[in-house]
Design goal:
3 helices, elongated, 74% helix, mainly alpha, 0% strand, 70 residues
Length: 70
């Protein structure tokens, strides 16, 4: 389970850093948009990708720290 946790952590970190780099290169979102409206823009999609990458990284870290399901 530790190996699987490491793989999930690495994938999550890769997604996070890729989306962060792409977010810096894209145009900023207009102010006052809801989450549904922001997904239509590339910057909004990269922001959601950052959150998904961070969540995957957190799950991978938990799986690495507690491999037996303590």
């Amino acid at each position: 389970m530790r190996l699987f946790g490491f793989i999930v952590l690495a994938i999550g970190a890769g997604i996070y850093f890729f989306c962060a780099a792409q977010l810096g290169a894209s145009e900023p979102l207009p102010a006052g948009l809801s989450i549904e409206e922001s997904v239509r823009y590339p910057a909004g999609q990269y922001q959601i990708g950052e959150y998904v990458g961070a969540m995957l990284g957190g799950v991978g870290l938990v799986l690495m720290l507690f491999p037996q399901g303590r």
